[in-house]
Amino acid sequence: MIQRLAIDRGAILFDPDLVDAPGPQIFDRTYWRERGALTERAGGRGTIHFIDDGQRHWALRRYLRGGMPAFLSRRHYLWCGEERTRSFHEMRLLQALRQRGLPVPAPVAAL
Prior knowledge:
By secondary structure, the protein is of the alpha+beta class.
């Protein structure tokens, strides 16, 4: 079951079965690089970083804006509330699909 953790300037949704120490550091590439767990990068509009520390095999990606709004800001969005963020929507959708037995990745966390 997904849990919510309030943090400075926002919140994290996470699966407590997959994340033993939730916090902003799990979204930080430097944190994983310093532990030798940032193993691969794949190109595209944004970069996906792969985390593999022997226990975790995660994909870490940041949402980037595309289309015309990207000319104004690639990383900032109009704030319409926590529950309307893309990362929270995707986290809840993936969990619902997995609960229905569909072959989708296990959602780990969203910031």
